[in-house]
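Quick check before the chapter quiz. The format below is the same one you will see on the exam, so make sure you can read both the input and the output lines.
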Amino acid sequence: MTYEIKSSPEFALIDYQLAAGESVVAESGAMVSMSGNIKMKTEARGGILAAAKRKLLGGESLFQNTFTAEGGPGRVMLAPGAPGDILPFELKEGKSLMIQSAAYVAATPGVTLDTKWGGAKGFFSGVGMFLLKATGPGTVFVSSYGAIFPKRCEGEYVVDTDHIVAFEDTVQYRISKVGGIKSLFFGGEGLVARFSGQGMIYAQTRSPSSLANFLHPFRPVKSKNN
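Here is the expected output.
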């Protein structure tokens, strides 16, 4: 299997070239186009209970789609819902990557997806109480809102929770305030993730909640008389 990430970083999509019999697994709704000989199978990977756990705790779709080239090579193009970048992560056997639930796009069939408890404070932070955990061997593709910038954590590094995309499982984090109570409610920053340890962190240049706040004054308001 070969692939190319096109239109990065603003409107990235994955262009897969599959040899006969090769497959790729994608989040529901990610398919943009595909060759006529590509067969799609929809299933709850790992069984219905495991899929329900990822859905309820990690925010992933209950069902995923597996695209397989039959009778010869084929091509399938996949893209996330939000405009932004896509990064591939090559995971060796037993190596894991922690992923913000909305950032998962696709993976090769050997990658296992599970959920990991991220702490109760994650419920208020935008990170979520649970994260997706992708474990190799294989390749997992992660998307962002905006561009993705990597940062190596060597001791401690602070990231706004709305900007977290993924991080290696060799680093830990805790949710905290960036300042005092006044900063929390009036400073516009909210909660942050304080990472510690040694490993890579991947953040996005734009925040979905900031976009929602920007658009809120322009939303149509219905009159009570209507």
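If your answer matched, good. Confidence is low (pLDDT under 50) at residues 46-59, 120-125, 182-188.
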